[in-house]
């Protein structure tokens, strides 16, 4: 499960880079749909399996929507970092957060579980 979430996070970040560069790609990934929540700016992306069962739900959230255990872990591991973006992944009821952080010298992409698990996926130096 952890490997699948990490792999999806990397693929998602690569997909964002490709889309940001304006290049269209054709893949054989499961179908997906986008749900707009009325009265809010929330957008939830659903990725479905071939049997049309919900496989992954993904949405951008604010830092005030993070669970307390995740915030506590981030305060211990990266105390001086600011949030750039937060993506909440819900895979079969297990929530994982892919968080991009910025401090004075680096950008870090970290993965946090809703129970406080923590791992650095990518660290980039600023120029």
Write structural notes for this entry:
The chain is α+β, with helices and mostly antiparallel strands. It has a single domain (2-125), classed as Nuclear Transport Factor 2, Chain: A, CATH 3.10.450. It is 23% helix and 42% strand. The chain contains 2 helices and 7 strands, in the order αβββαββββ. The chain has helices at residues 2-20, 68-77; strands at residues 32-36, 43-48, 54-60, 82-91, 94-102, 106-113, 118-125. It has a 7-stranded antiparallel β-sheet with strand order 1-2-3-4-5-6-7, with helices on both faces. A hairpin with a 6-residue loop joins strand 1 (32-36) and strand 2. The protein is globular. This is Beta-lactamase-inhibitor-like PepSY-like domain-containing protein. Keywords: Signal. Residues 1-20 form the signal peptide.
Order of helices and strands: HEEEHEEEE
Distance between the termini: 35 Å
CATH class: Alpha Beta
Strand arrangement, largest sheet? 1-2-3-4-5-6-7
The CATH architecture name reads: Roll
> What number of structural domains do the residues give?
1
Average pLDDT, all residues: 74
Write a brief caption for the model.
Helix content is 23%, strand content 42%.
What brief labels describe this structure?
42% strand; Nuclear Transport Factor 2, Chain: A; 23% helix; signal; 127 residues; 7 strands; 2 helices; alpha+beta
SSE blueprint:
Blueprint: H1 2-20, E1 32-36, E2 43-48, E3 54-60, H2 68-77, E4 82-91, E5 94-102, E6 106-113, E7 118-125
Antiparallel strand pairs: 1-2, 2-3, 3-4, 4-5, 5-6, 6-7
């Amino acid at each position: 499960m952890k490997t699948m979430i990490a792999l999806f996070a990397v693929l998602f970040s690569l997909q964002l880079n490709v889309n940001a560069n304006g290049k269209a790609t054709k893949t054989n990934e499961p179908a997906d749909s986008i749900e707009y929540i009325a009265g809010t700016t929330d957008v939830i992306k659903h990725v479905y399996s071939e049997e049309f069962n919900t496989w992954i739900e993904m949405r951008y959230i604010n830092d005030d929507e993070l669970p307390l255990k995740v915030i506590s872990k981030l305060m211990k591991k990266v105390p001086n970092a600011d949030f750039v973006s937060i993506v909440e992944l819900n895979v079969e009821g297990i929530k994982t957060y892919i968080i991009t952080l910025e401090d004075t010298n680096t950008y870090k992409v970290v993965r946090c579980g809703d129970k406080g698990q923590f791992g650095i996926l990518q660290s980039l130096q600023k120029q």
